């Protein structure tokens, strides 16, 4: 797969570089501090809560709700998921949705924004492909027609407003754990550690776990469904990304709210969606019938 790659503008590359490098620097500082003065339950709790909240903002909100319309929900839940997803620092809703829809249309073919299969085989080709799919693609220019992939999102007033105020939500996602850390401990050092662990370290982890769906899950794992691309199920990504790692399942049934199609495939995102459905906060939850799953597997043996 050969395609001419055009660099993004200097401003976009600089913003992307900050979004990628700053959380990594925060991780290094946190590791240094961990060996120096330890790690308390406060930092652990802030990291876990913020990782879960913003991670689900991506998996349930950005991905399953806004991109694939796998279910419908009430306005407060929709707005909350939009804000939490924005706090994950992976781009505005409009750009994220449009890019992901384009990925599905051209998955692992020319036009795919982040396929790892554009540099050929061999060790160097796989390594270059992994890097491109994981983070390199973000330094390239968007497709000129990218906007047409998210016209429905642009037409939604709530999503449009949250998307346009993306930078503010990023800042809030860093301020909240800092404020919580300061309030719980009653110290400025608690606020600093909250900013570090619940803010920068959390952003680093959520970013790289999510980006691994683009890279790892198109290179390594099982393919129970022989879709037209190289999407794969990866157990580690399935657990860390709240069910997103059952990626081959997802590409076989892209509008399904459930990615872990079997009982042993842990899908925390779908469990949350089910809870929302049981409480009347979500409806129209799309899940493929067992017969459809078995039929697809029968005609596409692993």
> Radius of gyration in whole Å, from Cα?
19 Å
List the strand order in the largest sheet. 1-2
Residue-averaged pLDDT: 93
Low-confidence stretches: none
How many structural domains can be distinguished in the coordinates?
Answer: 1
Task: Give the strand content.
Answer: under 5%
Distance between the termini: 24 Å
Q: Count all strands and give the number.
A: 2
Secondary-structure content class: mainly alpha
Portion in helices: 55-70%
Specify the number of helices.
13
- How would you sum up the major sheet? 2 strands, antiparallel
Report on this structure:
It is built from 13 helices and 2 strands. The protein is globular and about 60 Å long. With 302 residues, it is an all-alpha fold. Strands 1-2 form a two-stranded antiparallel ribbon. Helix content is 62%, strand content 1%. It has one domain (10-223). The two termini are 24 Å apart. The model has no long low-confidence stretch (mean pLDDT 93).
Outline of the structure:
The chain is an all-alpha fold and 302 residues long. Helix content is 62%, strand content 1%.
Please give a handful of descriptors for the protein shown.
single chain, 302 residues, mainly alpha, two-stranded antiparallel ribbon, 13 helices, globular
């Amino acid at each position: 797969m050969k395609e001419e790659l055009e660099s993004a503008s200097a401003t976009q590359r600089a913003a992307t570089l900050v979004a990628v490098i700053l959380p990594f620097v925060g991780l290094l500082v946190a590791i240094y501090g961990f060996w120096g003065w330890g790690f308390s339950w406060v930092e652990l709790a802030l990291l876990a809560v913020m990782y879960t909240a913003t991670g689900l903002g991506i998996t349930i909100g950005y991905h399953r709700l806004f991109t694939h319309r796998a279910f419908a929900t009430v306005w407060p839940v929709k707005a909350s998921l939009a804000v939490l997803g924005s706090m994950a620092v992976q781009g505005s809703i409009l750009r994220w949705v449009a890019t992901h829809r384009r990925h599905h249309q051209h998955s692992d073919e020319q036009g795919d924004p982040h396929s790892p299969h554009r540099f050929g085989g061999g060790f160097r080709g796989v390594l270059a492909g992994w890097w491109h799919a994981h983070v390199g693609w973000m330094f390239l220019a968007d497709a000129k027609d990218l906007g047409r992939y998210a016209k429905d999102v642009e037409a939604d007033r709530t999503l449009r407003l949250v998307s346009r105020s993306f930078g503010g939500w990023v800042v809030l996602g860093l301020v909240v754990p800092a404020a919580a850390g300061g309030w719980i401990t009653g110290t400025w050092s608690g606020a600093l550690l909250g900013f570090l662990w619940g803010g920068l370290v959390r952003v680093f982890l959520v970013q790289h776990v999510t980006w691994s769906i683009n890279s790892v899950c198109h290179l390594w794992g099982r393919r129970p469904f022989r879709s037209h691309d190289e999407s794969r199920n990866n157990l580690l990504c399935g657990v860390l990304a709240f069910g997103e790692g059952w990626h081959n399942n997802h590409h076989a049934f892209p509008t399904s709210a459930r990615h872990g199609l079997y009982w042993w495939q842990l899908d925390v995102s779908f469990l949350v969606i089910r809870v929302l459905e049981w409480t009347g906060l979500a409806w129209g939850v799309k899940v493929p019938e067992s017969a459809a799953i078995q039929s697809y597997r029968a005609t596409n043996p692993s």
